[in-house]
Design a protein that fits this description.
Blueprint: H1 4-17, E1 23-27, E2 44-47, E3 53-55, E4 61-68, E5 76-86, E6 89-100, E7 113-120, E8 130-142, E9 145-159
Parallel strand pairs: 3-9
Antiparallel strand pairs: 1-7, 2-4, 4-7, 5-6, 5-8, 8-9
Length: 166
């Protein structure tokens, strides 16, 4: 019998093998605004917003990711990895960020949050286009559950760079 864990790990292995555009994750500077994550938010990708469009630049494109973990009380967030699933092959995709640690910049006490930038680069003039699925795989542990993955997904759109005017 095949376990759910082995299927998930096999899926993660498939996702990490397809790579067309190099991508780098980097932490960003803390903001002095209200906390975005907490009891009311629950587990969610706050930024980019679902169905938003990311306009790409010719050289590179950077966008912010804010993820609110659903872990609290007797559970804790270990790390998160971010994938981009391609619509024409839903069982494959691209690893954007691997094992990002929570920074808790956007959370109330007892909750976990992540905030970082992702920079994508075109490869040989190829850009992402159309709707993609952005997925966060969060490793979590605690309270009768020693180690598991929580998966959160949103659809986002990518627009190719505007043509230069003549």
């Amino acid at each position: 019998m095949v376990s759910i864990r082995s299927v998930l790990l096999a899926g993660v292995a498939l996702l990490t093998t397809a790579s067309a555009i190099p991508i780098i994750g980097e932490p960003i500077v803390k903001r002095q605004d209200d906390k975005l994550c907490g009891y009311e938010t629950g587990q969610a990708i706050v930024e980019p917003a679902a169905n938003s469009t990311i306009q790409q630049n010719e050289d590179s494109t950077t966008f912010e990711v804010i993820y609110c973990s659903g872990q609290y009380f007797k559970t804790y967030s270990i790390d998160a990895s971010v994938f981009l699933h391609f619509p024409d092959s839903p069982n494959s995709g691209q690893l954007l960020v691997n094992n990002q640690q929570p920074d808790n910049l956007d959370t109330d006490a007892g909750f976990y949050s992540y905030r970082f930038n992702i920079t994508i680069y075109p490869e040989d003039g190829d850009y992402l286009s159309g709707q993609q699925t952005l997925s966060v795989y969060e490793a979590a542990s605690g309270y009768y559950n020693p180690y598991n993955y929580e998966i959160t997904e949103i659809p986002i759109n990518f627009a190719e760079p505007a043509s230069p005017s003549s």
